[in-house]
Amino acid sequence: MPEMPEVETLARKLRKTVVGKRVKEVFLSGLPLRKPISKSFASKLQGRTIHKISRRGKYLLAEMNPKAYWLIHLGMSGRILYHLQGNAATKHTHAIIRFSDATELEYRDHRRFGLLALYEVLRPGMIPEIRSLGMDPLGAGFNGKWLWPLLQKSQQDIKSFLLDQRKIAGIGNIYACESLFFAQIHPARRCFTMSPEETAHLVGAIRKVLKAAIRHNGTSFSDFLDSDGKPGNNQDYLMVFQREGEKCYRCRGPIQRMRQGNRSSFYCAACQD
DNA sequence: GCATTACCCTGAAAGC
DNA sequence: TGCTTTCAGGGTAATG
Asked: Measuring CA to CA, which residue among A120, A137, A32 is closest to residue A71?
């Protein structure tokens, strides 16, 4: 399940491999992803060169020349693979972007929750999906002073708040659980009850957890692989996520699981309150 | 306007 | 062994 560290890992790989390459042809499966891929996607991408790769939240953004933005979201199970042309498309290959130098990018996504789109706009901020995103948790503006007033106004539980991409862009279920563990805050805590000190502590925990995950090339359970097809190894460092019934590394108490919305939260009831 | 719920999808695991 | 059911979750539309 690609979250911000996995997308950042992928962006770093793609910067080394596909920047400067010209799109020669595009193959599409025809099946819809989260939304149907636009009919003009292939024709608009063809002939353009990848100028720059960036990331906003969990979105990958390829700036193209002539000016356009190729927007990619991996959803739950999306993968971008970089290889030489000639590999047969799999059942779950939904796009192949062939470059003029005999290499290609392949987009696979068995659950089809991802997104591929091309926007002929001047700035990323003109793309609706990007415009609606909140603060980047690794950006300079993400601090307790910014976050605390927002928490004061919210009746939500803190876990759901952290997952809301319109507020903070890039945190998914894994890193929300892990950050709350490090900050010693229960996932069901109501936002408005958070003190400024706890908020600052949470900000620090989020940054620490995300930076460590990027160092470990992301977390791989069943889905995430980088563009070389290699898994990350951050799953070896998780404190609570998917550890229900196992012992807490801090207090040896059992890790518990609860449902919040439609998501599972993992936490230690003794360490987090 | 805000919070919550349902839905999209399919592979894996569990249950029978 | 093989079939059926349940679960997982990111984003968003619908609902309360």
From this structure: A120
